[in-house]
Structures are given as structure tokens and as C-alpha cells.
Design brief:
binds flavin-adenine dinucleotide, alpha+beta, Butyryl-CoA Dehydrogenase, subunit A, domain 2, four-stranded mixed beta sheet, four-stranded antiparallel beta sheet, globular, binds 3-thiaglutaryl-CoA, 51% helix, 394 residues, Butyryl-CoA Dehydrogenase, subunit A, domain 3, Butyryl-Coa Dehydrogenase, subunit A, domain 1
Length: 394
Amino acid sequence: MSANKTDRFQHHDYFQVDDLLDENHLLAREAVRAWVKQEVSPIIEDYSERAECPTHLFKGLAEIGAFGPSLPEKYGCGGMDEIAYGVIMQELERGDSGVRSMASVQGSLVMYPIFKFGTEEQRQKYLPKLATGELIGCFGLTEPDHGSNPGGMITHIVEDGDAYVLNGAKMWITNSPVADVAIVWARDESGKVRGMIVEMDLPGVSAPEIKGKWSLRASVTGELVFEDVRVPKSQMFEVKGLKGPLSCLSKARYGIAWGAVGAALDCYDSALRYSQERIQFDKPIGQFQLQQKKLAEMITEITKAQLLNWRLGTLANQGKVTPAQISMAKRNNVAMALDVARESRQIHGGMGITNEYPIMRHMMNLETVLTYEGTHDIHLLITGHDITGLNAFN
Ligand code: TGC
Ligand code: FAD
């Protein structure tokens, strides 16, 4: 069995950030870590290599409470706080960014908008089934010609009796080929962005899979194509304008800020162990200053990101976190994780490019994570806008 599949991961907490967590956070983290060790690590390299989504994990993700952990219990969700949500995402992404994506999309991009913008009837109808994984959802915002600028979207709805007729196409949609429902954002006749729950078996809906990805290979990505789809009015959200979809992104970006630290920890942990075990010039390579520099810088950056996340989570629990703070954390932590993956790959030498170790998989995954939920550049511009008051997007 390969080194990766045996999952020898040890947690690293250089600044005792665990002391800032409560018992519920630690219990949630241990439960998800154990699940990842048992269910994800042994299979993920194979699924990734075959570019196949391990859809059987949806059930297990639901059982460990990974879908909507901070949404209320009365809808079958976890009722936990935002830090618990964060640590769960961290542990999932320690396993694989694609597995964290399965949970992020379902919880933050499908269940959260139904909870936040849906009617009580919509909540009762969908949330319990999404929490148990009986229904799988996806989130359609990005279009072929409108990625960073969703405000330019051309997918649209036209009122017709008791329904809206939906036409258009969405691109790069995680889970769309396997989804039962889609949260779709489209422009109405007055030009306002509206959200709706689209059942995937409605006539005129299709979701062709996007093939050929070198990143997030264990996650399924597709298009969403709508041809004269009649969406009943009862499926619409009340919210109007871009703040609808962008609020969902804030929720998911928060989870990614935590998740990226999980991927970084896995790469660091593997590099540290390798540096102690690999002998060159009759010494463990960890004894050479150049390797120590890499490892010391990796754990320094991981520690800074852990502290940033803890503060982000605390602000989120107090209802004080701003979208711009979330953007800064997402941007910093994902770029940090990618740097850690690259350094870790070097420490593993040639072995670092093989599937004996998780490094290349994390590195390739993180290229997507750097781009989705707002690119590295867009998050920098969000910070720039926030601190100067001047918009440099357009
Ligand atoms: P702008 O004028 O700035 O804002 C429009 C309205 O939205 C409000 N707002 C937010 N609200 C909550 N959270 C946020 N993060 C928000 N950002 C903005 C804003 O206050 C305003 O409200 P109001 O009441 O005044 O109307 O909009 P803009 O068109 O200028 O856009 C700004 C920009 C570029 C930052 C935004 O478009 C953006 O974030 N672009 C990036 C697009 C993106 O992130 N797409 C992600 C697609 S989903 C995805 O990738 C899922 S991956 C899933 C997985 O597998 O994990
Ligand atoms: P573009 O917007 O075309 O950007 C190209 C480059 O131009 C980037 O480097 C960008 O930073 C830069 N750029 C753009 N505008 C500016 C500017 N104003 N100033 C400076 N530089 C700029 N979307 C969904 O809706 N739902 C999903 O479930 C989903 N899942 C995804 C899964 C995967 C695997 C991937 C790869 C993407 C997913 N996305 C999803 C889409 C993702 O959010 C977009 O890819 C992302 O927002 C960027 O859009 P784009 O790819 O069109 O790039």
C-alpha cells in the first residue's frame, strides 16, 4: 500500500490554536478526521487518477454532518457555530479539495440560499433532504462569458402565467451532472438578478459533464443548459440583485479559507516526515539547512493562516465578519497552501511527483481553489476597493 493510502497524518498546531477552540469544535474535528482517514484517504488517489467523483461519499458526508453544519437543527442541520463549520471544512480538504467542494456546494451554495432567501415551504421541502444527502444540489452562477463578472450574466427568465420561462447556460458547475436540484441565478425582465430552485428533471434542463480537467479530478463539474424551462413561481427566491448570490459566495469562501489550511497541513506533514526518513549523504535530508528553511517557512505560514481563520471564525460567530475580511482570508490561505504544496513537492524529490504521496493531487486541486469562488486577482481587488473606497474592477 502506498504511503498516502496509509494516511499517517499528524496534526500540527505550533501556536496552540487548539486552546482557542471549544470541546464541540475538537469533537467535530476528530470525527471528520477519523472519517477522512477511513473513507477518503484510502481511495482518493485512485478516484483522482480516474477523474471520477466518489459519489458514494455523499452519504457519509451527510452522516458526519458536513452538509450545512451551521444551519439550524430544526431543518435537520448541525446547529453548530461558524468555527465548527470551519474545522469540518479544514479536515475535509486535508483529504481532498474535491471532497470539501462536495460539502461546500451542498451546504453553503445550495442549503444556505434556501435557508436565507427561501420561503418556509421551500425550507421544509428541501433542507432536510439535502442535509441527509437524499437530494444533491449544485449552484449555477458562472456563465461561459461571465466568470469574474457575474453581474454581466445573460441567462434570463420571462414571466408566463404561474411560471417563469428560463433560458441560458451556466458553465463550470460543481456537481451539476449528478445533481437533483440547482440553485440558478438569472436576470428577470426588469434586469434584476433573481434566484430560484430548479429541479433537474424539468423538461429543457441538461447538465453535460466537463471533461479533461487536470485539477479537482475527483470532483464532477458540468454545464447547466436551460431551454425554455418552466420554473414554477413557487420555486423563486424573494431576494433581488447580485447580493443574493454574492452572500452565498461569502459563506463558501469562508469555508475555503479554512479548507485550504487542511490541504497545506497535509503537504507539510508529509514533507516533515519525509525529511526525517529520507537519507542522502548519510543524513536525513531534514538535517540540511535548505530543507529546514522550507519546513520552517511552511509551518510559519500555516500558523499565520490558522490564527487568521480563528479570528475570522470568531468574527463570524459574533455576526461581525465582513465580505472583504473573508476575501482576504480566502486569498491568503489558498495562495499559502499552493506555496506549501510546491515546497513540499521539492522536499519529496522525485517521489513528490508520484501518487505515493498526496502532494501533486493537492497542488493540482489548489489551482482550481485559487480560481473558483473569486480568483486570486479578484480578491485582491476586493481588498483594494475596501481599503481605498475606489473600485478597480471596471
Ligand atoms: P457590487 O456592486 O460590488 O455588489 C453588488 C451587491 O452585492 C453586495 N455584495 C456582497 N454581499 C455579500 N457578500 C459578498 N461577498 C458581496 N459582494 C458584494 C454589494 O454590497 C451590493 O449590494 P447592494 O445592496 O448595494 O446591491 O458587484 P459587482 O458586480 O461590482 O461585483 C463585484 C465582484 C467582482 C467583487 C463580484 O462580482 C465577485 O465577487 N466576482 C467573483 C465571482 C465569483 O466569485 N464567482 C464564484 C462562482 S461560484 C463558485 O465558484 C463555486 S465553486 C464551488 C466549489 O466547488 O466549492
Ligand atoms: P475570468 O473571469 O475570465 O478570468 C480570467 C483571468 O482574468 C483571471 O486571472 C482573473 O483574475 C482575471 N480578471 C478578470 N477580471 C479582472 C479584473 N477586473 N481585473 C483584473 N483581472 C481580472 N461557478 C459556479 O457558478 N458554480 C460552481 O459550482 C463552480 N464550480 C467550479 C468548479 C471548477 C473546477 C472551476 C474551475 C470553476 C468553478 N466555477 C463555478 C467557476 C469559477 O467561479 C470561475 O472559474 C471563476 O469565478 C473565474 O471565472 P473565469 O474562469 O470565467 O475566469
